[in-house]
């Protein structure tokens, strides 16, 4: 009788130990999975931050800022084109040549930009 109780107690202890071991293994796997997902989330956030910064840089080029943006360059080209179109369309026989009107383009360029016609 004592031997059978001993056997039952030992079996119970072994089963509890096996159950706890299984639980620890599952918890370790869950921890690894959570860490893997967390790293992926962090990498995705870093990527989104870089993409957001790149979009902000591109968007900044769409607005005038005193000469350094792409928008400023397009506006300057448009102003120069209007000068050229006006000179060509309003030209009458005996008027100055288009080359004589290049000075108008020089007056419109911002400081430090390349000179037109040189």
Detailed description of the structure:
The protein has helices spanning 2-60, 70-89, 102-108. The chain has 118 residues and is mainly α. The chain is built from three helices and no strands. The protein folds into two domains: 1-60; 70-108. The chain is rod-shaped.
Question: Could you provide a short overview of the structure?
Answer:
This protein is mainly α.
Q: Main attributes?
A:
118 residues; 2 domains; 3 helices
Which SSEs are present, and which pair or pack?
Elements: H1 2-60, H2 70-89, H3 102-108
**Element string (H = helix, E = strand):** HHH
Q: What general form does the structure show?
A: rod-shaped
Number of helices: 3
Tell me the number of structural domains. Answer: 2
**Number of strand elements:** 0
Low-pLDDT residue intervals, each spanning 5 or more residues: none
The radius of gyration is 39 Å
Query: Biggest sheet: strands, sense, closure?
Result: none
* Terminal Cα span: 113 Å
Beta-strand percentage? under 5%
Kindly name the structural category. Answer: mainly alpha
Q: Helix share of residues?
A: over 70%
Mean pLDDT: 84
